[in-house]
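User: quick one, fold this
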Amino acid sequence: MDPELEAFVHLLPPADLTDPVAFREVYAALATEKSVPEAVGLEIEDRTVHADPDVAVRIHRPDQAQGAVVWLHGGAWVVGDLDVGQHWGVLIAERSGATVISVDYRLSPENRFPAALDDTYAALAWTFENAAELGIDPERIAVGGHSAGANLAAAVALRARDENGPPIRFQLLNEAILDDRQQTWSAQNFTDTPWNTRAVRGAAWGHYLGSQPATPYAAPARAEDLSGLPPAYIATAEFDPNRDEAITYAQRLLQAGVSVELHQWPGTFHGSQALQSAEVSQRQLTELGTVLRRALAG
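Assistant:
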């Protein structure tokens, strides 16, 4: 493990999803401990997407924004909201130059699949339909997210393709959880890695799906046909149960004729870029902005 990251591992509280409400309190407390970067040159606005039910979004608009990304926060589909994910919105907007539209999708287990995906799709459609008012080129809209949010980004790309929905320019999948079957080498062997363990993954899928079987929109790794999807940037952490399913997904996208950039970050673990004092974390965050800037360029 990267020595700058390893120094902090013993300070990280264990993730326990057996009580989602209690874990939300822990997660929110951790997020508030970390200062949100000052939003220099950003206009931040909260809006409501009128859907069934309505969906709250937060817009982070840089000066002379280049395109937009509909951004989905992580948190195992169980935790997270616009305030907890504010640091992501600011960082991505500043480093990419894109307008970031963060989505406050419904959480599990109170709202199981497909609630979060429906909210994501509604936010994507709203962004496309209101592009002119938002100052966005409707042909330069990306989807992206971290962990469970990356799952939603991959799933909404599949759904938009299948339903002839809004055109998606690019998909950014950061440390995505894509496969409920837990059969890859990393899922079976990284059982007690920081933040993301086998127990956490199992609980997350249980809360998200309940008793219903996984479909490709819930677990994109189950999709048989990946052709016609947007170009992708896929980033994985070395010590992460999610690692191998994301790498396999990248390979399958390539085999389906989709352009893919895959970056496996050595020495990192799931969510370790939150430790922003580490040099590798800064490189990860900078690259997320760089690839979005390049993908959304005119």
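User: anything notable?
Assistant: Residues 45 and 59 are 5 Å apart (CA to CA).
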